[in-house]
User: Fold this.
Amino acid sequence: MPNDTVELTVDDGIATVLLDRPDSLNSMSIGLTLDVVTAFERAEADRSVGVIVVTGAGRGFCAGADLGQEALADVDDDQPVDIPALMDRYYNPMIRTIDSCTLPTVARVNGVAGGGGFGLALACDITVACRSASFVSTFGPKLGIVPDVGTTWHLARRAGRARALGIAMLGERITAAQAADWGLIYTVVDDDSLDDETTRLAAILRNGSADANVRIRSAIDTASEHSLSDHLDVEREHQRVLAPLNLDEGIRAFFQKRPPDFPRR
Assistant:
């Protein structure tokens, strides 16, 4: 990566985007946001890749924005830091890149996911955390700003209004078990099982239809915008595209008692 803050590896069709700033719990520098975008672009361009896993080096997933970086360091200057401009230029494009990815994505949360790291963990399609991991949104009580990088969007849809407000306004640490119980993440596993469970989930996604997975994401994310009747039409239009691609193979595999071999990208 150009800024050496992210490591991209590919093994058996699984691309791993490793946030590699362990000394700062993989906090988000401007360079890291750019490197994540580059890593995703490279992984998507690799036709052997079927799924992307995001995780952190060392004992943390991501502690949020790096408040000590040069762009944010001089908060006493006469000119205030232009946070909206930084969001538009660096942080939001990173989240949009993950959200629009043409491959399914997995967040492997191996430690604290704080601030923007919380939002990054929620931006992936599937989030799996080890039992010692934790989640915390410190924007409101600690910094006096709104949680960003998509955090409020995901909180409202996953946890409901009462818990979303509590998480965002109180800034209390949430255990991985609580996060799973509240519907924030898909599952929590013992620390020594995190690698095996991540690989198992990634393999399911890798072996599935990328076209179907991306359309499943779209259908679920837009469901709240439609009436049931309108959303039935949305589902029908997804099937209009997917059924000719996949359904015959899926039915044959079902009766032959074997995994389906869907078309690759």
In short: The longest helix spans residues 228-255. Strands lie at 6-11, 14-19, 51-56, 60-62, 105-109, 112-114, 126-130, 134-136, 174-175, 187-189.
